[in-house]
Design goal:
elongated, 25% strand, OB fold (Dihydrolipoamide Acetyltransferase, E2P), BirA Bifunctional Protein, domain 2, alpha+beta, eight-stranded mixed sheet, 2 domains
């Protein structure tokens, strides 16, 4: 039965293909006709638009009976003798247009009838409501502004193939209103973050993307060659080390929203290039950063979504109530019933990991294993906003130690829906301690850790000059957008996500 169905589908496809080729040929012939008649739409350079469709609908009483000029893509067309209807889609939505021969004139009406779905048109006309109660534009003139030579996907099914949606985002934006809404939201979220930080006295800055030493995070960099200097350089994996140099320079409150690049896998939460927001504030610590993060997330949700309770997946995430605050050791105790306060040595930690079947590497010490236990047993339970604090020093090479517990650092991560949303520190400003941590990172690199940092001598020189006590935060914009738009995958919030090239060696 399956095979028969397959054959039928293949046959159907073969029958369709000539039709599509024929339709494409007809569109090109129509264009050639227009060009021969001196009416080449591609020669038009501008069209005066006075209004968008949504404004007409929202302020109908104001616009009823008035003349408007709008432009957009024709998404449907019903020709009925002397009068026709079409639907025009623009940035803000879509609107019906009533097109009559008597209003346009014989020639212009004939030209309209030859227009295709997907063509970009300009419409001048009067705002009115049809007998069916639909707000429309009674067209006085129709101008073909651009000819569509390709056929849009079938309207009612839209563009459903996810691979094609990501590769042809332009088609996706035309066919799927929700997609456009997501990216409008993304833009509003970034604007809201900027406004919030600007109001808090932060200065937006830009730092280099091409760097000789990619530090500030645990990740493999992309490498390239700079011909003019005949030097190998890397694409940055973080914004941290340059922003801290600015704190040394006395800029006190700085932030950057910028692209970073990490040469790692693709999945629902990771894209090799993504947008990071990092900020640094002098004279505060990680407690100040916790308050700032909580207030910022709450502010952005309220401003962009109009509420602090946002749906995500099967859950309702409450950003309005105070975020829970737990140390990493207390969180493991709460969710796994294991108390690492009682496990003092690396040997004891490895023995416990063996018992609980937690995989570790031979180079790992007690601090690394605490972090592995947290990832294994705790992360998935952190649905509502939760700050996890006081990480082991081994997994936090740029963070200040806790004065009363030097094996731990003043660091927190914000978790929502089981995902890390944010990472923040009381920043390490001791150049001697920082040099030792870089040495430990170099040793890890030599032992096979491809994500370890290398020593940055210029950054150490900046710390030698003196950096004030400083708090810092970093979070991925993409993950925040996913949360606030209820998007299941990072590709849904990236206009052009990274995809394997079609026609490559492995295709």
């Amino acid at each position: 039965m399956g095979e028969q169905q397959n054959q039928q589908n293949q046959q159907k496809k073969q029958n369709q293909e000539p039709d599509i080729n024929q339709l494409l040929k007809v569109r090109r012939e129509k264009l050639a006709e227009l060009q021969a008649a001196g009416k080449d739409p591609f020669q038009i350079t501008k069209y005066d638009v006075t209004i968008h469709s949504a404004e007409i609908k929202e302020r109908y009483e104001e616009w009823e009976g008035k003349e408007v000029s709008l432009a957009g893509r024709m998404m449907s067309k019903r020709v009925m003798g002397k009068a026709s209807f079409c639907n025009v889609q623009d940035l803000k939505g879509n609107i019906q247009c009533y097109v009559a021969r008597d209003d346009l004139g014989e020639d212009a009406y004939k030209a309209f009838k030859k227009m295709d779905i997907g063509d970009i048109v300009g419409v001048e006309g009067i705002v009115f409501t049809t007998k069916m109660g639909e707000i429309s534009v009674h067209a006085k003139s129709m101008t073909l502004l651009s000819k569509s030579l390709q056929i849009l996907p079938e309207k009612y099914h839209g563009l459903t193939n996810t691979d094609m949606r990501y590769r042809q985002r332009y088609t996706d934006l035309i066919m799927n209103e929700d997609v456009k809404r997501t990216f409008v939201m993304r833009s509003k979220i970034i604007s809201s973050i900027r406004r919030y930080l600007d109001d808090q006295g932060f200065l937006e800055v830009e730092t280099p993307m091409l760097v000789s030493n990619a530090g500030g995070a645990a990740a493999r960099p992309f490498e390239t060659h700079y011909n003019a200097l005949d030097e190998d350089v890397k694409l940055r994996i973080s914004l941290e080390l340059y922003l801290k140099r600015l704190i040394v320079g006395g800029m006190e409150r700085v932030y950057e929203i910028g692209r970073v690049f990490r040469n790692e896998g693709l999945d629902t939460r990771h894209n090799p290039e993504f947008t990071l927001m990092e900020l640094y504030q002098a004279y505060t610590d990680y407690n100040g950063m916790m308050d700032l993060t909580e207030n910022m997330f709450r502010h952005v949700a309220q401003e962009v979504c109009g509420t602090t309770c946002v749906p995500y997946g099967e859950e309702m995430i409450d950003l309005g109530k105070p975020f829970e605050r737990l140390t990493m050791i207390d969180a493991i105790k709460k969710y796994a019933g294991i108390d690492f306060e009682e496990i003092k040595t690396t040997e004891e930690a490895k023995k416990l990991a063996d018992e609980k079947e937690v995989h570790y590497e031979s180079r790992h010490v007690r601090g690394d294993i605490i972090n592995l236990f947290f990832e294994e047993f705790v992360e998935e339970h952190l649905i509502q906003p939760t700050f996890i604090m006081d990480h082991p020093v081994e997994v936090s090479p740029l963070t200040k130690r806790k004065p009363d517990k030097p094996e731990l650092v003043e660091r927190f991560e914000l978790f929502i829906y089981g995902r890390e949303m944010c990472n923040a520190y009381s920043e390490l400003n001791d150049p001697i301690d920082q040099r030792e941590r870089f040495k430990a990172q170099e040793a890890a690199l030599a032992a096979g850790d491809e994500e370890a940092n290398t020593t940055d001598e210029d950054f150490l020189n900046a710390l030698d000059i003196g950096m004030p006590p400083t708090g810092g935060i970093g979070y991925g914009i993409d993950r925040l957008v996913m949360l606030l738009t209820n998007a299941p995958a990072i590709r849904d919030v990236l206009l052009f996500p990274t995809m394997k090239s079609l026609g490559g060696k492995d295709q």
